């Protein structure tokens, strides 16, 4: 049977068992009206039997579908002719792809290449065998679990407790997906990075100052051994992020101060959402705007005063990014400023301080930890921002601190390395994961410090 | 509601002598409104130099609100409106040419809950002097801080750790720090809004001693919910009820021989 | 008057100046931020205007079988492959008979879009009987013509407007305009076509469908999971290390750069689980992992806002904890949860970077029909067009952005309305 049919069978059987068990439970409860027999509703028995029926079969089906492609592919590769296997991973990949396509297209008999025909036949037979085994397994699981479930359908079974336990297990699993995701990120990035560092030394990567990831596609090509010194990317990322923060911190902080301390409730209720729109605009829009409007404007401004400005200057990308992260600074700063207790403002006013003096000398120092963490979060946002720099910053890995020149960033290089036509195993592709690792670690550190600081701050005033 | 209204209507004018010779502050016909709701009704009262005047009354009687009018702290509440005249040395503090910053430098305030700034002990006391530019150099600033701490009776306890955060002190010490902070500006009047309500009895006793000592140099108005405290620290007492000033007089007089029925009820503990 | 009074009085003017200055900085910061926002939006809307109109040229095309290269009674296959572009070129030559040089002819033909032949083809296929006679048809003009006509009133006197059309071509255009044979109307193509290399034929339909499929996957995955996670953390989670770990993870995931999620998608879903590249399925999975923290955090806030008295009331009549949550707390928190979900989905709709990683940058002409078809999404389409050299793509890009922003505005407006309507003060 096809897996879709199997799924339908499972679900149909689950529904049937629900109604069956519920009906039966109604009968028992009617004849035995004591309170202890009413521990669970008939529907609970229905759910219980349906779960018994469906869960094992569904688990088998899902697991099978998850691992089937990989396993079949592995078995197919084992049976490939020797010369293909010798051709390396990319050759095998192309070959299996080819065979997959041939099988999808149908008409295996007409394949000219005998090896390919054999492989295609192998694939077809593997697939049909897999389908058969799966069908048998699923049906058997359905039968067994249904029988076991029926044996549990006794009046003394605490159906509600079991069903609720199951619900809680689902809830815990859903909550744990956050941990799984983090693990997935760490493992996938770390795993590929380790493979990269086997090809390119770790120290060469973090201390090298030359970045040109073009590796030779053929062995006889000249001068394309590729060098993976990531220092220019790190400095480029820093340069653009610093420019962004120079724009965002004063604007965001002053906006937050004004909204929290001076603005009327009405102004605040209008301006605050408007400012937050800045964070809601897709970054690709900022990228387009930076490349099309801001960069040329900065360039012509620079030229009018005799400066040579690159058309992909760090300044353009950084300034636009700065505007984007204003809300990250202003929202959190606003929160922490508002949470400074009114009593110490009163104390300052009571001594005859003006409002600005109170804000500058009492409120801001008190809110400083929170403000610092808002800046750290904004910095982490800037480092990880991709589209603006992909569209408005350059590709050339210049080692410079001049904001008028073009620099490239970690995220730009990740995108460039992974969107080209490259085989997955090459150092070039793996380098993207090594960069991803650096990015992940850097932003994680910033976030952890920021969250820790803000939590300490909150505890102080709660 | 109607009963309260009836009581409110029954209070006509203030029993006792509201005026003093040479008043430091002099309030006449003060009304306070929060939006539409009137909180204070036509209060007349004088505050004399070198005296402690206690304001007592049941919760919600408006005594704190009235106190906050005296240095315009109510300005920070947008819906609050004050009418009538509040004179400091003969000048109306609500007049257009009067400045709240200058006023608050002259009329200091100590709040119900100790509210030290999250700064060091030194910076807390130095704050007022710094914003007003009272010290020309570091040495003068040191003098102001040490002097204020001494007068607040806190210096001996904290002299070795002036850099420690003000929030690290105990509740009673924090409140004395706040008093030191107020007197560092050399105000003429100090307003105290239930300064001991968050403190234990021992700390309270220290503050009360302090208030008595401070009387030599300042006019002090203190709001308190404790009649014993009023009896211990004040020379004159004003009894507020539902936003009206019911009775004013010599503290001993008020506590031993109240004239108004409401005052008597309160003092004898029949409500409050 | 004491010393204090004198000193304070002397400093008052300076201090109030500082006060006003400080306040002014606040107003200035807000003004700068908001005017940038306004400038950004206005400039993009302004640039997008040309993309919403489309010029076409009125042409009298002779459909003789010989020019089309078909038999007298052509069947469908023949009609599909007939030489329509030849017929159009011939019609153009007849319209401007004095054009004879090879190069001039080429210039003349370039006024008509290369998509015009398909327009003619569809026209003929819908009524094959017109073969042998003449047909009058409005054919799509080239994007350069489009842009020029939109930019200036008099094409022979263009001032400093940049165009690739030479003087002669502009002369022809002027002639057509005077004869009323060029008209400009609403650009339906933009909403009914997929991507194209030709700006005048490029549309966002494929990208819209791609976005819709991707968002569907995102919603189906992230909503139930996020609600379950929020319920667990808010209602059931014991105070222990595992709960702490989950909370820390959620907070951190909310701030992980989106491109890192793209790397996760590439390594895990495409390389390990061998799911199809460029497909809304993988895009949706990646985006749902990204939006989970947002939805979980707002769902928790919504659950927290339900007062404990409701829980106690239900527990008091003997409901189990699960029943309390699912019968009482969850329904009351639902508006808040939905609001958070919509905001999370709006974020996902605008996301680009992680989708680049999983191959959704392909040049997709066909409308995706399911979640495993190759597809692209609206923001990625914006990215692709922004990279295209043809100037007409600037307008198309801006127009695609306008459409994207409209969707975001609608989603956020719904979220705000939902919150307003169901906001409850306990």
How is this structure best summarized?
The complex is a heterotrimer of chains A (462), B (272) and C (426). With 462 residues, chain A is mostly helical.
Topology:
The complex is a heterotrimer of chains A (462), B (272) and C (426).
Chain A (H helix, E strand, L loop, with lengths): L2 H29 L10 H37 L3 H5 L1 H18 L8 H38 L7 H41 L2 H6 L3 E2 L14 E2 L2 H32 L2 H16 L2 H22 L9 H25 L3 H9 L4 H30 L2 H6 L17 H10 L7 H35 L1
Antiparallel strand pairs in A: 1-2
Helix pairs in contact in A: 1-2, 1-5, 2-5, 2-6, 4-5, 6-16, 8-11, 8-13, 9-11, 10-11, 11-13, 12-13, 13-16, 15-16
Chain B lengths: L1 H9 L12 E12 L2 E12 L3 E5 L6 H7 L10 E9 L2 E2 L7 H7 E4 L10 H12 L5 H14 L3 H4 L12 H13 L5 E5 L7 H14 L4 E5 L3 H7 L2 E6 L2 E7 H6 L4 H7 L5
Parallel strand pairs in B: 3-8, 3-9, 6-7, 7-8
Antiparallel strand pairs in B: 1-2, 1-4, 4-5, 9-10
Helix pairs in contact in B: 4-5, 4-7, 5-7, 7-8
Chain C lengths: L2 H46 L4 E10 L2 H4 L7 H6 L2 H12 L6 H8 L6 H11 L7 E7 L2 H9 L15 H12 L3 E5 L2 H4 L12 H32 L4 H13 L4 H15 L7 H25 L3 H9 L4 H30 L2 H5 L20 H9 L5 H31 L4
Antiparallel strand pairs in C: 1-2, 1-3
Helix pairs in contact in C: 1-18, 10-13, 10-15, 10-17, 12-13, 13-15, 14-15, 15-18, 17-18
Fourth CATH level, the homologous superfamily of chain B: P-loop containing nucleotide triphosphate hydrolases
Report the largest inter-chain contact.
A-C, 89 and 86 residues
Instruction: Classify the fold: give the CATH topology of chain B.
Output: Rossmann fold
The outline of chain A comes out as flat
């Amino acid at each position: 049977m096809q897996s879709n049919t199997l799924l339908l069978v499972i679900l149909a059987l689950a529904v049937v068992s629900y109604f069956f068990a519920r009906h039966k439970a109604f009968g028992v409860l009617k004849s035995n009206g004591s309170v202890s027999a009413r521990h669970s509703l008939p529907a609970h028995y229905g759910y219980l039997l349906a779960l018994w029926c469906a869960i094992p079969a569904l688990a088998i089906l899902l697991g099978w579908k998850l691992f089937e492609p990989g396993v079949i592919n592995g078995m197919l590769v084992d049976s490939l002719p020797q010369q293909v296997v010798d051709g390396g991973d990319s050759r095998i990949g192309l070959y299996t792809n080819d065979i997959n396509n041939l099988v999808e297209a149908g008409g295996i008999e007409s394949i000219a290449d005998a090896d390919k025909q054999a492989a295609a036949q192998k694939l077809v037979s593997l697939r049909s065998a897999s389908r058969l085994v799966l069908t048998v397994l699923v049906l058997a699981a359905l039968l067994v679990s249904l029988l076991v479930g029926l044996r549990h359908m006794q009046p003394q079974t605490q159906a509600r407790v079991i069903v609720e336990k199951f619900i809680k297990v689902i809830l815990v699993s859903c909550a744990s997906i956050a941990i799984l995701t983090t693990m997935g990120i760490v493992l996938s990035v770390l795993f590929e990075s380790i493979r990269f560092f086997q090809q390119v030394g770790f120290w060469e990567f973090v201390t090298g100052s030359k970045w040109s990831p073009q590796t030779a596609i053929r062995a006889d090509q000249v001068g394309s051994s590729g060098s993976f010194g990531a220092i220019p990317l790190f400095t480029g990322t820093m340069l653009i992020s610093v420019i962004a923060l120079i724009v965002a911190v004063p604007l965001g902080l002053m906006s937050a101060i004004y909204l929290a301390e001076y603005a009327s409730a009405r102004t605040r209720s209008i301006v605050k959402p408007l400012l937050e729109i800045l964070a809601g605009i897709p970054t690709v829009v900022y990228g387009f705007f930076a490349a099309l409007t801001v960069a040329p404007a900065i360039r012509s401004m620079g030229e009018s005063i005799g400066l040579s400005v690159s058309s992909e200057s760090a300044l353009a990308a950084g300034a636009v990014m700065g505007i984007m992260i204003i809300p990250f600074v202003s929202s959190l700063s606003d929160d922490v400023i508002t949470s400074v207790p009114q009593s110490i403002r009163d104390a300052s006013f009571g001594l005859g301080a003006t409002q600005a003096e109170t804000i500058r000398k009492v409120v801001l120092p008190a809110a400083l930890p929170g403000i610092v963490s808002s800046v750290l979060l904004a910095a982490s946002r800037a480092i990880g921002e991709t589209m603006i720099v992909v569209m408005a910053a350059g590709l050339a890995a210049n080692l410079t601190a001049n904001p008028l020149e073009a620099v490239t960033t970690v995220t730009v290089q990740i995108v460039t390395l992974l969107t080209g036509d490259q085989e997955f195993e090459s150092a070039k592709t793996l380098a993207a994961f090594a960069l991803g690792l650096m990015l992940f670690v850097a932003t994680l550190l910033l976030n952890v410090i920021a969250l820790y600081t803000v939590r300490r701050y909150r505890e102080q005033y709660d | 509601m109607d009963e309260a209204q009836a009581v409110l209507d029954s209070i006509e004018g203030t029993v006792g002598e509201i005026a003093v010779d040479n008043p430091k502050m002099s309030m006449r016909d003060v009304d306070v409104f929060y939006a539409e709701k009137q909180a204070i009704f036509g209060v007349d009262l004088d505050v004399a130099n070198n005296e402690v005047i206690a304001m007592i009354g049941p919760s919600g009687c408006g005594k704190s609100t009235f106190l906050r009018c005296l240095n315009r702290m109510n300005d920070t509440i947008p819906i609050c409106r004050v009418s009538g005249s509040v004179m400091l040395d003969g000048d109306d503090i609500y007049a257009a040419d009067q400045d709240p910053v200058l006023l608050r430098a002259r009329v200091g305030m100590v709040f119900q809950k100790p509210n030290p700034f999250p700064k060091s002990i030194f910076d807390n006391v130095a704050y007022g002097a710094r914003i007003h530019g009272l010290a020309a150099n570091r040495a003068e600033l040191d003098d102001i801080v040490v002097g204020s701490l001494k007068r607040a009776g806190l210096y001996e306890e904290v002299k070795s750790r002036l850099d420690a955060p003000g929030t690290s002190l105990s509740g009673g010490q924090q409140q004395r720090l706040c008093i030191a902070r107020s007197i560092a500006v050399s105000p003429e009047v100090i307003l105290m809004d239930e300064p001991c309500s968050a403190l234990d009895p021992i700390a309270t006793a220290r503050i009360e001693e302090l208030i008595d000592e401070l009387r030599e140099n300042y006019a002090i108005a203190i709001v308190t919910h404790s009649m014993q405290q009023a009896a211990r620290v004040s020379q004159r007492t004003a009894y507020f009820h539902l936003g009206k000033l019911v009775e004013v007089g010599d503290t001993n007089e008020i506590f031993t021989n109240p004239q108004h029925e409401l005052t008597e009820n309160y003092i004898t503990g029949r409500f409050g | 008057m004491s010393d204090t009074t004198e000193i304070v009085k002397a400093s008052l003017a300076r201090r109030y100046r500082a006060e006003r200055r400080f306040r002014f900085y606040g107003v200035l910061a807000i003004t700068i931020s908001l005017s940038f926002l306004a400038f950004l939006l206005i400039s993009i809307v302004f640039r997008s205007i040309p993309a919403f109109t489309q010029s076409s040229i009125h042409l009298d095309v002779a459909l003789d079988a010989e020019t089309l290269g078909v038999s007298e009674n052509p069947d469908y296959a023949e009609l599909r492959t007939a030489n329509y572009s030849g017929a159009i070129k011939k019609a153009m030559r007849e319209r401007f008979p004095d054009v004879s040089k090879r190069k001039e002819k080429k210039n003349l033909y370039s006024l008509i879009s290369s998509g015009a032949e398909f327009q003619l083809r569809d026209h003929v296929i819908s009524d094959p009987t017109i073969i042998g006679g003449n047909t009058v048809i409005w054919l799509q003009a080239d994007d350069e013509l489009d842009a020029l006509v939109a930019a200036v009133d008099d094409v022979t006197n263009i001032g400093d407007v940049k165009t690739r059309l030479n003087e002669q071509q502009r002369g022809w255009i002027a002639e057509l305009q005077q004869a009323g044979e060029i008209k400009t109307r609403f650009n339906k193509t933009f909403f009914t076509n997929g991507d194209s290399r030709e700006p005048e034929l490029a549309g966002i339909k494929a990208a819209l469908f791609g976005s819709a499929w991707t968002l569907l996957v995102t919603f189906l995955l992230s909503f139930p999971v996020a609600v379950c996670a929020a319920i667990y953390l808010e209602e059931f989670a014991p105070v222990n290390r595992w709960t702490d770990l989950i909370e820390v993870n959620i907070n951190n995931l909310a701030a992980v750069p989106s491109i890192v999620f793209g790397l996760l998608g590439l390594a895990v879903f495409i390389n390990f689980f061998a799911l199809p590249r460029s497909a809304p399925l993988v895009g949706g999975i990646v985006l749902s992992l990204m939006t989970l923290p947002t939805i979980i955090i707002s769902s928790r806030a919504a659950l927290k806002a339900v007062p404990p008295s409701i829980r106690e009331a239900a527990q008091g009549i003997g409901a189990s904890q699960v029943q309390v949550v699912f019968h009482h707390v969850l329904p009351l928190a639902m508006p808040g949860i939905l609001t958070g979900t919509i905001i999370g989905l709006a974020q996902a709709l605008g996301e680009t970077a992680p989708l680049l990683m999983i191959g959704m940058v392909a040049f997709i002409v066909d409308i995706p029909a399911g979640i495993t078809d190759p597809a692209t999404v609206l923001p990625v389409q914006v990215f692709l067009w922004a990279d295209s050299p043809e100037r007409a793509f600037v307008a198309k890009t801006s127009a695609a952005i306008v459409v994207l922003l409209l969707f975001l505005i609608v989603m956020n407006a719904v979220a705000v309305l939902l919150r307003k309507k169901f906001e409850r003060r306990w």
